[in-house]
Amino acid sequence: MVATTQRFTLAKYLAYDDGTDRRYELVNGELVEMPSESDLNNAIAIFLLLTFAQIVPGQLLRRGTEVAVSGARATVRVPDLLVLSEELEAALSGANRSIVMMDMPPPVLAVELVSPGKENEDRDYRYKRSEYGARGIAEYWIVDPAQAQVTVLTLVDGLYEEAIFQADERLVSPTFPTLELTAKQVLQAGKP
């Protein structure tokens, strides 16, 4: 990942266009280029999107939607998958840009797919965990192919409680109790 040394405000970030199709997150005021997804991570994200489409209305599902989170300086994250509440979907309706601002309701679920490397692990397991918790996101999933596990974090009294699932263990989601999915199915993107 490449970071700039220039500090951005949220307004400057929202107006930024470098004329390319590069993807960025804003991390404590620094513009950080996001690497391309691996084919496996992309397949997992699509598999989860299709799975959630069976239990929630399609208009509540998002890929590529930005989420403004609190921090010392402006921070905007781009989860691999979001499930919105109906209230949030209504707030985003008609917006020029698909970004969940601080004055909007939080998403119901954010899913991050961990890319290889300590920097990526720290970002998903540490920083986003605290940012998403502070933002009030009810459930946060960390899908980690390298560790062969799916971590489901559930927000309870302002802090995430963690449950780790591996192999044929069925994921337990308090937000989506009817979900019938194992860690193996997720990590293999639905392949038998």
Could you describe the largest sheet, including whether it forms a barrel? 6 strands, mixed
If you average the pLDDT, what whole number results? 93
Name the CATH superfamily assignment. Answer: tt1808, chain A
Rg over alpha carbons: 16 Å
Q: Under the CATH scheme, which class?
A: Alpha Beta
Notes on the protein architecture:
The protein starts with a strand and ends in a 5-residue tail after the last helix. The mean pLDDT is 93. The chain has one domain: tt1808, chain A. The chain is an alpha+beta fold and 192 residues long. Helix content is 26%, strand content 29%.
List the helices and strands and how they pair.
Layout: E1 3-7, H1 10-15, E2 23-27, E3 30-34, H2 39-52, E4 61-62, E5 66-69, E6 75-77, E7 81-83, H3 86-92, E8 99-100, E9 109-113, H4 118-135, E10 139-144, E11 149-156, E12 159-165, H5 183-187
Parallel strand pairs: 5-8, 9-10
Antiparallel strand pairs: 1-3, 2-3, 4-7, 5-6, 7-9, 10-11, 11-12
Short description:
With 192 residues, this protein is α+β, with helices and mostly antiparallel strands.
